[in-house]
Amino acid sequence: MHDIEAIPSPGRKYRKRDLEGLDPVLLGALLRERIHHNIEVPLYSMLQRRPFKAVPNFGLQAQLVYDEWVRRGLPQDGPDLDWAKRYIDIAAQVRRGERPGIPELVVSIPEPFTKSEMEVVRKLIWGRCSIRNWTSRPVPEDLIEKILEAGRAAPVGCNLDAVRFVVLRTPEEKSIIWSDIPTDNAVIIVICYDRRIAETVGQDKMVPQNLGYDAAAAGDHMLLMAHALGLGGVWLSKTAKSEHTEDTGKIFKELYGLPDHIEVALHVAVGWPASGIIKSKRIPLSEMIIAKK
Ligand SMILES: Cc1cc2nc3c(=O)[nH]c(=O)nc-3n(C[C@H](O)[C@H](O)[C@H](O)COP(=O)(O)O)c2cc1C
Question: Chain-wide mean pLDDT for the chain?
Answer without folding.
Answer: 92
